[in-house]
Amino acid sequence: MPINTVKWTRNELKLIDQTKLPDALKYIHCRDIQTVWNAIRRLSVRGAPAIGVAAAYGVLLEANHFKGKTRDELMIRVDEACSYLATARPTAVNLFYALDRMNKVFAKHPGESSVAVLKKLLKDEAMAMYEEDRRVCRQMGQHGAKFIKPHNRVMTICNAGALATVDYGTALGVMYAAHEQAVPFQVYACETRPLLQGARLTTWELRKAKIPVTVICDSMAATVMKRGLIDAVFTGADRIAANGDTANKIGTYNLAILAKHHKVPFYVVAPSSTFDLTIANGDGIPIEERHHDEVTHFRHVRVAPRGVKAFNPAFDVTEAKLITAIITERGVIVKPGRASVNKVLRYDKI
Ligand code: MRU
After folding, report:
1. Active site residue 238
2. Residues 247, 287: contact at Cβ < 8 Å?
3. In the predicted model, is pLDDT for residue 173 greater than 70?
4. Which one in 41, 157, 274, 335 has a CA-CA gap of 20 to 30 Å to 18?
5. Span from the CA of 248 to the centroid of ligand 1 (angstroms)
6. Terminal CA-to-CA distance of the chain, rounded, Å?
7. Mean pLDDT calculated for residue range 332-349
8. Between the CA atoms of 188, 193, 195 and 200, what dihedral angle is there, to the nearest 10 degrees?
9. Which fold has domain 141-345?
């Protein structure tokens, strides 16, 4: 059964409410931009590419509510919508990439004064991003599947699957492609505290795809690698700097260090829209800090003494030198660095 994480249907945005998984498959029907903002902020929709496409549809919802008559008024309304959605979460650059594309619709059609036509062009742009996500995820899958050999045991963290994109995935997309090629392999999924995207979401979708999966606590990764149980690590990314330094879910950096120590290849799988070439290296990537309750509580049950201090960065940065390769839809960046990133991306997105 396909997973439709983000879908525009009957003039509304339909999202899987990922906070309810794996216990229930429930949907959120977004009819206004505020609902989209909330869904992004509370991680009902999450994962960098899915956030980007959802935000594009959020802008479209706002444009569709516009009752004015002039291009300039609509342009201001769309610009405000983009500024508003940009405050939902700071790290995944796909959000800003998608908003930028929606805003640029006006610049791309300078002579267009019809509000109805401009609304249609905004819809076309959001739809194009949706279709591109479907296409590039499958292309990354094709580029990356060769790195999974028969009977490999691969590790992943967080969820970089169908639930993090519109329907297929980046790191898990590579696994789906290998599975479609009938390569037998199994997955170790790190649970991914504090919000358990690995335990709740990755296991849910891999089981649906009938790919064998074992969940482990994050703290078990070193032991699993030391015992020789892992042949490769595959993760997604939220923002990749010009030199290949990669921000992804907190705990990714730990895995990269462990992988280096145990001589296990470490692959990042991400579309070109996840690169931010305006940032020279990982030090410039903004890291979201989330509410302390996510750390002091486990699935809404308090596990730390009332009033204790907590620290909750949602992402970390893995230095490029720890990454074996970055798999993009444009090709594989081996030994990522400024030159190899430029060579594969060829600058034309940015
Ligand atoms: O906080 P989340 O669940 O949005 O974090 C998601 C991740 O870190 C993913 O690995 C990343 O966005 C890549 S998804 C294809």
Report:
1. yes
2. yes
3. yes
4. 274
5. 6
6. 35
7. 88
8. 20
9. Rossmann fold (3.40.50)
